[in-house]
Amino acid sequence: MAFHTKLKELRQQQNLTLRKLGEKAGISYSILNSIENGRIEPSKDVALALAIALKIEDREEFLSLARNPF
């Protein structure tokens, strides 16, 4: 599964808007929107901030999606 697909799935499961997730993670809406739509890949720091904001327990698996987009 691609990072952007997993991100959207997790965000929707928690009933978060892109803006709300961006606020929690300290990431701008426009960057987050580009990540979720697959236009850009997040840096490790951004992926980690998203994992923390989404309260993901297995962060390594989530981060590996960011490193391996396919």
UniProtKB/TrEMBL annotation:
UniProt xrefs under InterPro entries: Cro/C1-type_HTH, Lambda_DNA-bd_dom_sf, TransReg_Diox_bact_type
SUPFAM superfamilies associated with the record: lambda repressor-like DNA-binding domains
Transmembrane region(s): none
Alphabetical UniProt keywords: DNA-binding
All residue ranges annotated as the HTH cro/C1-type domain in the record: 7-62
Name of the protein in question: Helix-turn-helix transcriptional regulator
Organism (species): Paenibacillus alginolyticus
